[in-house]
Design goal:
Length: 177
């Protein structure tokens, strides 16, 4: 396993539409393991393969919502390969989203509260499930990456430009330090 560099906006590779996975082989297993290691190290709760420069329809999520007896987050890793969303609810939820590719920047994004999803796991097994709450929001966010869309694309032009200016300023400050 390896921690891979995470692409940051405005890297044009983040705008590439990812291609479906066709082969479930050792290379895919290594990619998935690297994605989890990279996501946990960042730290984050979701990561799409394109965020580490691999334009394949693979994403990983671990909300780590529960804690063990010592108060440490309990890992619940989930892999979504070639995911599809359908039958979104009409009701919407606002969530203050952030992104490992837009570090330390957050904004409220409105998304369907409930969705149905279909995907394959790391072994190629098919799954279908109705999802809601943070998992539904996170899956929609990560699936946007597979289409070359960032959460900031859901904002007004003014908010998006302000956020990108703050990101650029933070990046310059990090380099100067």
């Amino acid at each position: 396993m390896a921690i891979r560099p995470i692409l940051e906006a405005p890297d044009p590779r983040l705008r590439v539409k990812s291609t479906p996975v066709e082969t479930f082989d050792d290379a895919l297993q290594t990619l998935i393991d690297d994605m989890f290691e990279t996501m946990y190290d960042a730290p984050g709760i979701g990561l799409a393969a394109i965020q580490i420069g691999v334009p394949q329809r693979v994403l990983v999520i671990d909300l780590q919502e529960d804690e063990d007896a010592e108060g440490k987050p309990v890992r619940n890793p989930r892999v979504f390969i070639n995911p599809e969303l359908f039958d979104p609810s009409d009701d919407k939820t606002l969530y203050n989203e952030g992104c490992l590719s837009v570090p330390d920047q957050y904004a409220e994004v409105e998304r369907p509260t409930r969705i149905h999803a279909r995907w394959r796991d790391r072994d190629g097994n098919s799954h279908e499930e109705a999802l809601d709450g943070l998992l539904a929001t996170c899956l929609q966010h990560e699936m946007d990456h597979l289409e070359g869309v960032l959460f900031i694309d859901h904002l007004s032009r003014l908010k998006r430009e302000m956020l990108l200016k703050k990101l650029d300023k933070a990046r310059r400050t990090r380099r100067a330090a």
